[in-house]
Amino acid sequence: MRIGPYIIDPPIVLAPMAGVTDKPFRLLCRELGAGLCVSEMTTADPRLWNTPKSRARMDHDGEPGPVAVQIAGGDPQLLAVAARHNVDQGAQIIDINMGCPVKKVCNAWAGSALLQDESLVGRILEAVVAAVDVPVTLKIRTGWSREGRNALRVARLAEQAGIAALTIHGRTRDQLFAGSAEHETAAELVRCVSIPVIVNGDIDGPERAAAVLEATGAVGVMIGRAAQGRPWIFRELAAWLSRGERIPGPSPAEVLSILLRHVRSLHEFYGEYRGLRIARRHIGWYCRAHPGGEALRQKINRIDSAPGQLAALAEWFAPPAAAAA
User: Fold this and answer.
1) Mean pLDDT, the chain, as a whole number?
2) Which residues participate in catalysis according to the annotation?
3) What is the pTM of this model?
């Protein structure tokens, strides 16, 4: 999969998710097989760029390239300024968010709310593409509502503006994450525009990824919620798509190793106070499929020290023989 001058191999992308795809998680997912990881969305409002949250989101030091940063907002000129600012901070790909369905974002006339105004969509795309010398990509949904599906018209605007790749989530905004994602719209986009199309929505395993790629003709897949607590999904998908090989999932010992490294990196990146609180969310995702995972989550939520958090995880994952010794 090519985005501008960059070959994305494997063609498997970690979706931008607010509060999830921070630098520690992106580094982990790249290590475990993701071809590209997109940052959490960063605001186009320059008044907020110096907050601790924004500074953390704009930290790309040591990340393997290409570094992809998603920007969100509704003003073409502010988005253009934000794109230039993030390129100055190390971004090599700029992604424009027109897919987020969250009420807070849409009420600020950003994310998927923008799909209601195709004229504004066109002005935003043209302004951002003109502002930077790096590839600009776009993420959308199939439309604002079931009655107002306009992904094809938006894709044509993207093609005309010089967007380098388009990701489509197979739901409308009013669906949020309910029901099942459909990928027929993605197949229509592939037939009707020449820019690369990446498919997102309910892709949770190797066979599903392969089936969606075959059905749509898309060049790649984007993985979001399926990677939460399961970052090794990227190597599983890569093995299946490249070699038709289903590799085994990680052993409990490897899960513990991955989880401890992830949690330690959160402590180091954010500091103990914020890090252990952010880690609680990730720990819950790692443990939701394990017997006793809910009890561990409740225990972790009562621990207020980084060493205590790590010790509780090591104890919970310890083999029975080791635990009894």
Assistant:
1) 94
2) 100
3) 0.94
